[in-house]
Write a structure and sequence with these properties.
By secondary structure, the chain is mostly helical. The chain has helices at about 10-15, 25-30, 30-80, 85-95.
């Protein structure tokens, strides 16, 4: 066997007890393990944040669709109510004494 190296049997209690962290490999690469743990934490938090943003965007797109539909309905209703025939009918129903002009409008020139 090698000089100064002891053969240890790796058991579950040895790993869970933290004895494995005293091994040369782990002592030499501690900084790398800390960096990898930090990057994993950063990756998970970034992914979670992105998922929340995507859900919010989808929710806002649904609201936008509803508002556009509502605007289209309102516009169609107003367009229908401003037709000359509709205006005349509304004037008759309300009993107003307004008549439609008999002569067409004309333009004034400068």
């Amino acid at each position: 066997m090698g000089e100064g190296k002891k053969k240890r049997r790796v058991s579950l209690m040895y790993i869970l007890g933290g004895g494995i962290l005293k091994e040369d490999f782990f002592l030499k690469h501690t900084r790398m393990f800390v960096l990898v743990a930090f990057l994993l934490f950063f990756y998970i938090s970034n992914r979670y944040t992105c998922t929340l943003k995507v859900r919010e965007i989808e929710h806002l797109q649904e609201q936008l669709k509803d508002v556009k539909y509502q605007a289209l309905l309102t516009s169609a209703s107003l367009t229908g109510n401003t037709r000359p025939s509709q205006v005349e009918e509304l004037v008759k129903r309300r009993g107003l004494e307004i008549e439609r002009a008999k002569t067409p409008p004309y333009k004034l020139r400068k």
